Amino acid sequence: MHVKILCILPNLQNRRNATTRDVGSLKYIAKLDVELTTEERNLLRIGCKNVMGARRESWRTLSSIEERERAKGNEGDAKRIEEYRRKVESELTSICNDIIQLIDDHLLPSTSLCESCVFYHRMKGDYFQVSSRTQRLASRWRRLLQRR
C-alpha cells in the first residue's frame, strides 16, 4: 500500500475517535432521564453533528482513494480501502440508530416542553435522513464497482 494512503487512514481514524469521545459525556447526561436545557440540547446536537461529519468526511475520502486505486489497477489496495470504507458506512448507520434510540428511550420521555419535543423530533428526522442517504450512497457505490 502506498505511503500516502497509510498516512491518511490513521488521520481519519483519529478525527473520528476524538469527536466520539466528546459526545460520550453528553449521551451519559441524556441517559440520566432529566430534561436538558436549551444549551445542553444544542451541545448534544452539535456533538452528534460533528461525529457524523467526521465519519462522512472519512467515507468521502476513502471512496475517492478507492476509486483512484481501482483506476490505477491496484486491486489489492482498493480492496483494503473498500473494507475500511464499509466499516465507516456501518459506523454511520450504527451512530444514527444510537442517536434515534437515545431520543426515543431517554430524551423524549423526560421532556415536558413543547419546544424540546419539536427539537428532538426534528433531530430524529435528520438522523433518519442521514441513515437513509448513507445506505443509498453505499448501495450506489457498490453497483458502480460491480459494473467495472
From TrEMBL:
SUPFAM superfamilies given in the database record: 14-3-3 protein
Name of a matching Pfam family: 14-3-3
Domain 14-3-3: 21-148
Family in the record: Belongs to the 14-3-3 family.
Protein name (database record): 14-3-3 brain family protein
Organism name: Populus alba
